[in-house]
Structures are given as structure tokens and as C-alpha cells.
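Quick check before the chapter quiz. The format below is the same one you will see on the exam, so make sure you can read both the input and the output lines.
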Amino acid sequence: MLAEWEHQSYIQLTWPHKDTDWAPILPEITAVYESIAREILKREDLVIVAPDDLIPHLSPLTPHLLPLTTNDTWARDHGFITVEETSSDTSLTSHPSPLTTKLLLDFCFNGWGEKFEAALDNQINRHLYDQGIVKGEYEDHLDFVLEGGSIESDGRGTIFTTACCLLAPHRNQPLTQQEIEDRLKQWLGSERIVWLHHGSLIGDDTDGHIDTLVRICPDDTLLYIGADDDHHDLLEMEKELQALRTIDGRPYRLLRLPLPRPIYDEADRLPATYANYLVINGAVLVPTYNQPDLDAEAMHIIGQAFPDRDIVGIDCRPVIRQHGSLHCCTMQYY
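Here is the expected output.
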């Protein structure tokens, strides 16, 4: 499985519309998506999935449009997961040259353990592939539940995930942790799966997606959400990371991100996190929450992990109203 910071061809957005849970704040969330789209288009192509009636409004942004009705907009969790397969071709020369193929792995998204309807979202990938909008070799894994936000890859054989998500009810029971690990190693081409057993955000619907908590960066660096003594589970996660070693036995470089101050939608605490950033060609798009000191601190720390990229803030207060953030809205293709 490729690392997110490798060179990309395009990003997918699945656009908000009136028949999604975004309906009460549709102008606000649409403005956020437009901000994300503009920053992406400065650096790479953009694919948008949207209902028919929105296509004329979106066509000035990009020619890469798929008219399709969707349940919701979380491209990270219903989008293809890309794996690079390398082989040698000895048929034309006595000096074998490596050949690479992009495999598009289509897993089942079941609304984070059947919490929400997702049948329409599970049709998106096949349409993208059949219409030639995304390129690669299609692999059907729709009998296995796996969300893109639940796994992180360093591109060199290590996959990070959380036990609380992949072992949660209504995903892949009765498979054991070892059986799930064996499948992930086979399909994602990984040598090891790092399972984190601590870490959670109040208000999270995903059962602890790794992309809300810990992110793998170049040069064996981990960005992670830190917390004070009131967040015991995040402190325990920090201890796990401190004890962790790379595949060749060295400690990781750890960069601690702040936890945003509590944000509420009426009585509901929302799962705001700075870990849910998006790496694109030449930049990192970072969620911000109108907390200038913490927003600036988070962007500075993320800049330490990606010193060769622009660090761009995107106001994601509307996004967390539906319990996600910036990375959740997107999926990259290579």
C-alpha cells in the first residue's frame, strides 16, 4: 500500500447535496468543499462524484465528473485503496526490468459498522472504474469491510491500524484479529500490521479511525494527538507510540499535535482533530477550528514533518458537525 505523500494523479471528492445529512448546513459545507477543491486544483487533478443536478455547477471546476446519487460524502472510507504491485518482465530482454501495476482495491463500506446507510456509496468505485475515470486494475473485496481512514501505510511494508475499529462489532465478525491481519498483509502487501489498542476521540462515529489519531510521515516520523491528564486513553496511546519500534528496530520520531479545545453542536461534543490532514502534491491541507493559537501550533508541527511542502489551513468547523474532518472527505489516487 502506497504512502499518502507519494506523487498523486488526482484527489476524489464526493460532493455534499440536499439528500445527505449535510442538508441543514449545505451552504456552509459546500463552501468548505470549494476551498478544498481550489487548493487541490492548484497542484493536481480533481475527481468529483455528485448528483446529476449539481454537475453543471461543478463542471467549471474540473472535467473529471461522475454523475451519481450517493448516500453521503466520505470518500476516504468508500474510495478505492491503491496498492502498487511490482513484477519483472523477462519476455523482451535478458535484463529484467521492473513493471508496476496500480491495483484498485474495492472494499465494503458499511457505514462504520452499520451505523448509517451506505449502499449507494458502495457503487461509486465500480462506476469510477467502468467509466475510465480512475485507472488501474480493479480488485473486488466487497465481502470485507475496510475503510480507508482505518489504515495508514509508510509505503515500505508497515500498516498502522486500531484494534477498536477493525475488531468492532458489525464489521468482519467472526474473524479474529490474526485472521484480519493475515488478509491485510496479503491484500496490502505489508510485512507487519501495527495494532494500537488505545486512543479515542469524544464524539467519534468511526470506532477510532487511525487517521483521527496517528499519522505516518516520511523518515519514520509519527504525528499524533496528545492530551492532558483528562484524556487517559490518549495518554495511554502516547505510551504505546513511545514503546514502538520501526521495522528495523529503531524508535520512531514522535511529533505531538495539540488537541483542539472542546467544540459542541448543542450538547454534543464534536471530534475535532488536527491529525485529519491531507497530503497532496506540494502541500499539506490542515483542518483548522478558529482556535488561532492551536491552529498555528498544529500547522507548525505538521510543517516539521513535511518541511518541503506548503502548509495550508482549511476551516473545518462545518465538517466536524457530521463528526468527520478534512482527510475523511478525500481520497488520493496515483
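If your answer matched, good. The first helix runs from residue 26 to 41.
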